[in-house]
Amino acid sequence: MVRVKLKIVVKTVFILCIMVGSVYVLLPRNLCERDTSSIWNSTSNAEGNPHNYTLILNNPGRCDVTSDDVFLLVMVTSTPGNREQRLAIRNTWGNEANVKGTIIRTVFAVGLTQDAKMQGDLEQENGVYKDIIQEDFVDSYRNLTLKTVMCLKWASEFCPNAKFVLKTDDDTFVNIFNLVRRLRRLKGTQARRFVTGRVFTGAKPVRETADKTEARWCLTKGDYPRDSFPPYPGGNAYVISNDITRLIYEVSLTVQYLFIEDVYFGLCLEKLGIHPEHNGEFVFGRDVHSCEDKKIASHWLKTPGAMVRAWQNLIRSC
Ligand SMILES: *[C@@H]1O[C@H](CO)[C@@H](O)[C@H](O)[C@H]1NC(C)=O
Ligand SMILES: *[C@@H]1O[C@H](CO)[C@@H](O)[C@H](O)[C@H]1NC(C)=O
Ligand SMILES: *[C@@H]1O[C@H](CO)[C@@H](O)[C@H](O)[C@H]1NC(C)=O
Fold this sequence. Notes:
By secondary structure, the protein is of the alpha/beta class.
């Protein structure tokens, strides 16, 4: 009798556990509740964002040109292991000789790797192409803003003679012909204090989400107290006139660190009173097919093959 009852109790408890467990697993949970602040406290600083890092790979003479000025400095944020992506970019849209009569310089920006072999490969690659810059902060997603600040600093220090700077990622495809054409049309003051890209206005911080991808951008009130972001250009590709890269770098030192790199960039612009200009030709899909479609940049070309195919489609029409 007692044994049977015990069995029933055990069974009931077991079934209840399963039920409660599955409700817990299936219910949408707010993934923002996990505390992630501790992993980036080292770079978070209420007084601002001091950028005390040292270049361990540099090509200081990259922008030395004798004839004309550099028209466009392309800065591609990459990571030490993404050698194939860099090769694909060098061979396609990032080739400096693509646009006749226009001086372009392409540089890849990376952070630090703990992997000695990877570092060796990176140095060897830089020995061949002389186009990599590396600062001594840990290369990680949460440190992406440091990479942007590094680019601003480098552009103003080592490439002051460039007219424009394109800040982009190594999974972005750029229609370099349309971009140069577009920038050439800017005259006089239009080409000063100028920032353009796909501009987001009135976007809000993610406070709670059940979506894993979105959870990458969770921000607590402590991380970011305001209810919306200032206008900012989507981080995969934006253009800055080089008269303001130093200003943006300098103001960044006084803007509290936020790992969402493009929002952080928008905060710096806001502090300077610079309004980024929206340009719908910067897109997110993979729809930069031809020169006629007037697109400038697209995102999510995750493989070197995709980069090469997009390029082959493009040059057939440009
Ligand atoms: C990180 O910073 C937050 C906010 O300033 C603070 O509440 C938290 O205790 C810090 N975490 C660590 C591990 O220092
Ligand atoms: C960064 O450098 C500045 C100026 O050299 C210095 O005042 C500051 O203490 C440094 N900060 C850190 C965290 O090392
Ligand atoms: C960012 O880089 C700094 C400096 O190397 C490092 O101390 C910190 O742990 C890094 N943060 C993350 C989240 O990787």
